């Protein structure tokens, strides 16, 4: 169903879809805001759907009539908790920013006291979801899928753990249970004939063929394989299995998953007679309108070895004013009153980039923890503010992350060693007069400070930091990380 209808049913309006929005109350002082937040959490389950519609996180709820009639009552405080799930296919060894909104949806259900299940698609990834794709995915070997699945489970565990440690106050009430499962555990053991005779007998060909993604692929020159065609049936079976074994009644997914969610609804209701529901979240797109992800080649990864905390932080700091308020509502747990206050201050002091910095801090802390956020801030100070203190506090890992293309060298400090000696030993300048002129012309800096005298003797604490490192830059983009031995 369209989310605004449900929001009206719950007594809230969702201005994102053009409905009237009541004016927000003035920003609350910190102590009152904390008390207000605790009270809001205590009644969170009652307004879960309405609140997330208002934030823009819940985009569409299916099926329309039964969801409008039943879901608000099922989510009332005092009722047994519901179970909701979302699936993540391990087509890569890391989640990316595009996965964050489905994770946020799970976390909001958990915060309202409901149980959540994150399913890693160790079986479905072998086929590849055809939704929104113009051609089939390259098949992944079983061993690589298993390795990717382990990495995704670790990433999901980190997100749930960071949320529990850094964003949840035990006094706020029950935090729902979180489970991590792999659909290879049940799909990998399901005999083909039993699957076709059971689930396959309940799903209608006409419905599957009518899906827009299926129609587009069937009209293409490449066509559509049987494996891809059966993908919605396998995802539907996930919903059935989770309903039968874990009491799951809600499936969450990106907006492009609605067709698969509808197949799951059809299978579960036909085989059990129980009403189940689907909720979609928006897709995050680039400035050109492309969906963020591996396929489009624009993924911002959540694993540190692929995208550092600094790079993730900068991705959100660089968001434009026309989307930052929307992203604060989608990607953070900040109350709407606080977001309104942040935007009000931004209108007065736009040069401070307050909303962008708060957005970046909240997301980086959720993904990489408190230390990851501090790492991102150190790297920001070192790179953009030439902070020697930040450079001195940086670990080897942070230096490598910040200067990924930098050349690393280990050198022995010799008595009387000069800037010219350093540059030549690091192979940072050419031999002869041209290298000498590179320094005298101002093309060399050490630890963010330009040096123009090649004969300057290196000084501990100035050219060599207390962590035994020098950051040498030649030109605008050529960095060299120098590690000094036996100081």
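^ Assign residues to that structure.
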């Amino acid at each position: 169903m369209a989310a605004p209808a449900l929001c009206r049913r719950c007594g809230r309006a969702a201005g994102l879809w053009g409905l009237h929005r009541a004016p927000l109350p003035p920003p609350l002082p910190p102590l009152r805001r904390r008390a207000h937040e605790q009270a809001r959490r205590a009644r969170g389950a009652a307004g879960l759907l309405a609140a997330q519609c208002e934030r823009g996180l819940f985009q569409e709820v299916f099926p329309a009539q039964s969801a409008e009639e039943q879901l608000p009552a099922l989510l009332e405080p005092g009722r047994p908790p519901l179970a909701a799930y979302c699936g993540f296919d391990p087509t890569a060894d890391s989640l990316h920013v595009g996965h964050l909104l489905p994770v946020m949806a799970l976390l909001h259900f958990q915060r309202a006291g409901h149980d959540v299940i994150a399913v890693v698609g160790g079986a479905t990834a072998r086929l590849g979801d055809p939704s929104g794709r113009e051609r089939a995915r390259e098949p992944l070997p079983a061993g690589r899928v298993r390795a990717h699945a382990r990495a995704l489970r670790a990433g999901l565990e980190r997100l749930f753990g960071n949320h529990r440690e850094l964003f949840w106050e035990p006094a706020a009430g029950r935090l729902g249970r979180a489970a991590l499962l792999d659909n290879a555990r049940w799909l990998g053991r399901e005999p083909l004939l039993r699957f076709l005779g059971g689930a396959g007998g309940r799903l209608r060909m006409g419905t599957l063929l009518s899906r827009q993604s299926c129609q587009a692929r069937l009209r293409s020159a490449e066509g559509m394989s049987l494996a891809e065609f059966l993908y919605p049936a396998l995802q539907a079976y996930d919903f059935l299995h989770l309903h039968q074994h874990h009491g799951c009644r809600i499936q969450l997914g990106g907006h492009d998953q609605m067709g698969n969610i509808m197949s799951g609804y059809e299978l579960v209701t036909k085989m059990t007679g129980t009403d189940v529901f689907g909720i979609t979240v928006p897709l995050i797109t680039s400035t050109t309108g492309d969906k963020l992800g591996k396929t489009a080649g624009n993924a911002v990864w959540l694993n540190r070895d692929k995208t550092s905390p600094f790079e993730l932080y900068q991705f959100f700091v660089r968001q434009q004013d026309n989307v930052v308020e929307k992203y604060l509502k989608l990607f953070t747990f900040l109350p709407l009153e606080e977001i309104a206050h942040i935007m009000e201050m931004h209108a007065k002091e736009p040069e401070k980039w307050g909303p962008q910095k708060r957005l970046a801090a909240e997301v980086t802390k959720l993904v990489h923890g408190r230390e990851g956020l501090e790492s991102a801030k150190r790297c920001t100070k070192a790179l953009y503010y030439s902070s020697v203190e930040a450079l001195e506090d940086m670990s080897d890992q942070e230096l490598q992350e910040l200067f990924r293309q930098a050349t690393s060298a280990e050198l022995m400090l010799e008595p009387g060693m000069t800037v010219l000696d350093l540059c030549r030993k690091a192979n940072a300048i050419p031999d002869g007069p041209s290298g000498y002129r590179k320094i005298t012309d101002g093309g060399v800096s050490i630890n963010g400070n330009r040096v123009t005298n090649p004969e300057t003797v290196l000084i501990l604490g100035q050219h060599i930091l207390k962590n035994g490192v020098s950051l040498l830059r030649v030109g605008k983009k050529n960095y060299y990380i120098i590690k000094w031995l036996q100081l």
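The chain is about 50% helix and 10% strand.
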